[in-house]
Amino acid sequence: MSEIALGFGAYERTGNPTLVCKNLYAESVLTPSGSRLQLRARPGLASFKTVGSGQLRGIGFRDGLFDNSAIVVSGAAVYTLTAAGVLTALTGAVAGDDLVDIAFGQDADLNSVAYIASGGALYKVLNGLVTQDTSFPEAGASSVDFIAGNFVASASGTDKFYYLAPAAVSWEPLDFQSAEYAPDPLVAVRTRGDQLAMLGSSTFQVFALSGDGNNPFAPYGGLDDDFGCRARATAVNCVGTLMFVDSRCNVRRWDGGVPGIVSAPGLAKLIAEADSMDLVAWTFTIPGHRFYVLRLSQSSTWVYDLDGEGGALDHLRELRLRLLAGQPRLQHRRRGSGVRCAGRHGLSAGRRSADGRL
């Protein structure tokens, strides 16, 4: 029996009118005649919490740390936020107004620790205090992550990344390595399993744990490529898979081998037309599915189902978002839908948006 496609990856440029899959995802269902695709409705968004009075610059969460609270940067202020909506202001501030990078770990006493990279500086969150870590050897940190007990931070405008060894209390000037495949500056550092990806402005290079305490990271041979990352805020670990927008405006998926392209050429054109500083991504999960959400602008957002079925249906799809006006606030998934926010930010931070939405 012939099958009729009910949806395509948007902007495939087939020459025919495009049927855009909106607010739906595909699942494979076993029927008497064989496996068939079924389109299911994606859970909606709901207003959650107003946080501070400034632009929401970033949010991070890690299970078991900070009493299972998220860290939110709103303007220069930093807060913890529980799932019940309890908001607590921390002492200290993060200067600037650009999006920030947040990474989580523990110190030698098993206290929850977070580092926040703002580009101009590196900040430490510990015991309710936010302080600039002046031991960081460079003028500023552009990105930060955590792997196997080590915090890793890239020095702004360089190809160098420094590592803070387990139980260390300060960054050492000689504890660094360079992404030497090419001299382009690092845009982001991201972990996936036991691998560490260095995303430059025009290159992609992978490091792995070496087992050597004096030199804990070594280049992972065969995974150097001549594409970089267009915007740090698009690089998100989606529960074991790294997603990012590359320097050629493709959306790539990295599962440990060579990063593959999952977006269509038409979508790459839309990404190219967007300001790189407006590109923001986040991730969420529902049972059996991981989603990568990429916002191109205030009015254009696309979603990719990492566990989806159906070939072209796996391409990014348009997602109609509820627009909020007025005060900075958070959005979360409706309770009872079995939805869980996860990944680097969990919720999306809007750059220079009038309402400061996450």
Search tags:
mainly beta, four-stranded antiparallel beta sheet, single chain, disordered C terminus, Methylamine Dehydrogenase, Chain H
Describe this structure in words.
With 358 residues, the chain is an all-beta fold. It has one domain (24-342): Methylamine Dehydrogenase, Chain H (7 Propeller). It has 1 helix and 29 strands. It has one helix at residues 265-273; strands at 24-31, 34-41, 45-49, 56-60, 70-74, 77-81, 87-93, 101-106, 112-117, 122-126, 129-132, 141-147, 150-155, 160-164, 176-178, 186-192, 195-200, 204-209, 217-219, 236-237, 242-245, 251-254, 260-261, 280-286, 289-297, 300-305, 317-318, 330-333, 340-342. Strands 27-26-25-24-29 form a 5-stranded antiparallel β-sheet, with no helix packed on it. The longest helix is centred in the last third of the chain and has 9 residues, at 265-273. It is globular. The termini are far apart. The model is unreliable at 310-358 (pLDDT under 50).
Task: Write a short abstract of this structure.
The protein is built from one helix and 29 strands. With 358 residues, it is mostly beta strands. The longest helix has 9 residues, at 265-273.
Write the layout of secondary structure elements.
Layout: E1 24-31, E2 34-41, E3 45-49, E4 56-60, E5 70-74, E6 77-81, E7 87-93, E8 101-106, E9 112-117, E10 122-126, E11 129-132, E12 141-147, E13 150-155, E14 160-164, E15 176-178, E16 186-192, E17 195-200, E18 204-209, E19 217-219, E20 236-237, E21 242-245, E22 251-254, E23 260-261, H1 265-273, E24 280-286, E25 289-297, E26 300-305, E27 317-318, E28 330-333, E29 340-342
